[in-house]
Amino acid sequence: xxxxxxxxxxxxxxxxxxxxxxxxxxxxxxxxxxxxxxxxxxxxxxxxxxxxxxxxxxxxxxxxxxxxxxxxxxxxxxxxxxxxxxxxxxxxxxxxxxxxxxxxxxxxxxxxxxxxxxxxxxxxxxxxxxxxxxxxxxxxxxxxxxxxxxxxxxxxxxxxxxxxxxxxxxxxxxxxxxxxxxxxxxxxxxxxxxxxxxxxxxxxxxxxxxxxxxxxxxxxxxxxxxxxxxxxxxxxxxxxxxxxxxxxxxxxxxxxxxxxxxxxxxxxxxxxxxxxxxxxxxxxxxxxxxxxxxxxxxxxxxxxxxxxxxxxxxxxxxxxxxxxxxxxxxxxxxxxxxxxxxxxxxxxxxxxxxxxxxxxxxxxxxxxxxxxxxxxxxxxxxxxxxxxxxxxxxxxxxxxxxxxxxxxxxxxxxxxxxxxxxxxxxxxxxxxxxxxxxxxxxxxx
Length: 445
Fold this sequence. Notes:
- Helices cover 22% and strands 24% of the residues.
- It is an alpha+beta fold.
- An 8-stranded antiparallel sheet has the order 2-1-12-11-10-9-8-7, with helices on both faces. An 8-stranded antiparallel β-barrel has the order 13-14-15-16-17-18-19-20.
């Protein structure tokens, strides 16, 4: 079967086997829907309008990635810092010492949910009614603890600086610049109806739809596969009118690890983004769950390939559907191989290329495009790629040397050694002419 047939089969099987009113899924590449499939009807009844790629579903906690983008826009404008305590921006709460970064990464220690009634099934209320419910259950920064409440607090930070509601900031700062015309805070036709399937009969129960007020930033938005495809590429690459690629790279660095006993690390939260570590490859995005709806967005950072799933059921989406969709991605959406071309600009760095030694340990320095360099051990050791920051100066971008400065030290205009976080790299092992000389002696040579 071809891609469309395989995809339709997977979606149809998931919809029937899980007794979901409808399921819509898509495979994406570089922000575009390559293939999509739907099964079922918008309200789960026979004869009702069928779901399709333009059907709007509630996306639940994927909304948190939009909230995080709004906060980071304020950061990039210099209005706030990720390290700022909440008290600086929203004074008078019981959790004023937690930082904005801890709220974004779910490491604030803030409680997961509000006081009863169940906020996801009841109408929302203003922030001043949320404030008395703000309570820490863990010391700030001590562990990952998912908090819906934390994103209600972050929405208030945005609202106080912008002077408009969270909904309005999402619309004007994110949706309009990205051309996401089918994403909204309330459902817009054609949209799916929220349903819960009866656990013991082929019956469906309606789920309420409300605006959740101060908690809206945790799960309010509705969207389609085409709009989420656009959003997935933004999360991977940024957009000049919204957030830079560097800011998005910062947001997807793992901070709050999902540390499950007896299991290897596989996922984490960055600044508002879920990050999955799959065989050394990074996938980013978020899941979503609200009464009547489930959703998932995942995109491979390196390739730009991804998967989207949305359904209008409260619980029970197939656990095998996402892995099966990724298998289709791997089989049918190969990443184009870009041709190699010579880069004459690297001539300027050629004098640095080749072997260097940290003490007796051999390293190799390679020049890269745009003035970058790679310093890698020959065998075991610490290496990194470095981006240029000035004449004869670079900063590490990964591993042990992430954020550390590498400087070329010259004598008579010629590179003599590399200074990296106090370590000296010389052209020969324990160069006898280094500031801490070594070298081969007759006694031991």
